[in-house]
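FIELD: query
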Amino acid sequence: MLQKLQERWKVNAINLLLILLTFALGGSTCARLAGYFLKQLLNERTFLWWFLYIVLVTILWPICVLIISIPLGQFRFFKNYLQRIGKRLSGKKKNSSAPVNIVIFASGSGTNAVNLINYFKTNPTIAVKAIFCNNSNAEIIHKAQSFKIPVVMIENDVLSQKEGFLLQQLQELETSFIVLAGFLKKMPAPIVKAYQGKIINIHPALLPKYGGKGMYGMHVHRAVIENKEIESGITIHLVDEVYDNGEIIFQASCAVTSSDTPETLATKIRKLEHAHFPGVVKDFIEKQNHR
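FIELD: result
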């Protein structure tokens, strides 16, 4: 049950415990306050007393949990949680035409990220909410700014030690899917767990060949050329806790000739990436949302 809540709310184990503690403290606090107020007004616990008690608890509960969530660091979660409850109580249905929010992680030039941004600019079903980047010198930062897309800088310690902060950032953006487009860091296990089956990566080789730690960009192309492979290609796959190990969604290949160099092969791979990546991401997300 706890694992299901963790996946549903997209939080790590520590934040889940803090959220449950906030629920418990908020519930007990509002119950005590309601009882105290009514004790000043009514001596006997009549039907009227219980009616007023329920009304007071209903009014006090959101106030109590919001106040208690502040020192426990869960204010953003409960703010969004109460807003969702308010929409349900008001009878407002979720807008089925609202776009699915995605966040793109990138570390370098961002050619694939820009390709995704351009593709989804004219697609009302999917919206790129932000670019998350771990490299302050990356070209993608300026490119994203030219599209007026927010850039969230994430330091290495955030990825390795402060996953809860990263989860909060994603939650605040109401992120449904994460797309890795040239992101050179391993995704933290809590993020992978929170977005299980919803993190998509593109790799410049035909996995399971030429995958794993250190196998990215020109490193991959050099290895392919040195091993005299006759074909290479791209793999679009889901991300799990192991480098380049998740379920394969799509592959496309190209020939590797004797005259190819790592640079010419990189050009071929880039053409495959630009031709297929956005469409595969779109089809996968739409398929998942219709389940």
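FIELD: remark
Residues 13-41 form the longest helix (29 residues).
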